[in-house]
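The authors assume throughout that readers already know how a fold can be written as discrete tokens. A single example would do more here than another paragraph of explanation. An entry of this sort, consisting of the sequence and the corresponding backbone structure tokens, reads as follows:
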Amino acid sequence: MSAQRLSVAVIGATGIAGQQFLACLARHPWFKITALAGSPRSAGKPYGEGIKSPNGATGWWAEGNVPDEFTGMVIQDSERFDPGSVDLIFSAVESDVAKMLEPRYAAVTPVVSAASTFRMEADSPLLIPGVNSDHAPLVKEMAERRGWKGFVTAIPNCHTTGMAIALAPLHKAFGLKTIFMTSMAAVSGAGRSGGVLGLDVTDNVIPYIVGEEEKVPRELAKIFGVFTGGGVTSAPLAVSCTCTRVSVLEGHTEAVFADLGMPATVDEVKAAMRDFAPTELGGLPTAPEGARLIHVHDDPFRPQPRLDRDRGEGMVTTVGRVRKDAALSNGVKFVLVSHNTKMGAAKGAVLVAELLRSQGLI
């Protein structure tokens, strides 16, 4: 790996996901933020001013304070931003904006996106490093087909990510047939603008999240699909989910029920999860220690989002309550916690960029 850091831009830098990009990329050994861009509302302002609300409150969401290197950086207008001015773009904009901007950027420069726009495009990989890293070369096919110098690769929905990581070693060792999942999703997943109102979610559970239950089955089938060189053939999985919003700040909790392709004991399932340490993650700066993406608890009262979301600096999926399920022929069930704004958003996207860089695709 060259010692030269790539220049990168963060688009949508003032939102929750954008702020997590800044927190992750501050002093990153491979990438250096040289440009920030946002909406016309914040464009032209120093970043420290651009994240302030109309009442003067500093709207910094990520842990700690705004990194000093970004406070004075002037936010550019995302619609006028020159993609050729950087080596790589991280996109943290809403899907409708991504649909307009990301193809324009990708014609010149690679884009790693947290938006949903390109997730199901046939020539764009839906990557979780360590789970389906072999899909990464599809970005070359995308650039060639579309006549672009770059590409767009999106990360999965935050509901999908933790479940896919937890199921990946089971899919490899035993096969998967049917999956049921119910989520208890953190309010940060709704963002700030147009997000869940505190008055609605306090002392309450919101039983429906628009669009999530449709995304998860499609995304999971693509992630576990077979890379054919020119695309991905989706895995033949039956997936059913219910996605709810609860009064938790960060960390999605999910109850997962899986019918395996062959019988497996609880100890075998736990061992498969504990041993899951994909070698291609070795040396990637944002990967968890030892490339171990899963931590398995034996304590029946874990995982809990408040206690487990920051394991591995938010990059580890924590699993507990692994049991047999008699309602399914080869059934197992477990509970997981995954950090929705770290592994499920910005830091997961940075890990994708690190994987692509390590494979010479950026």
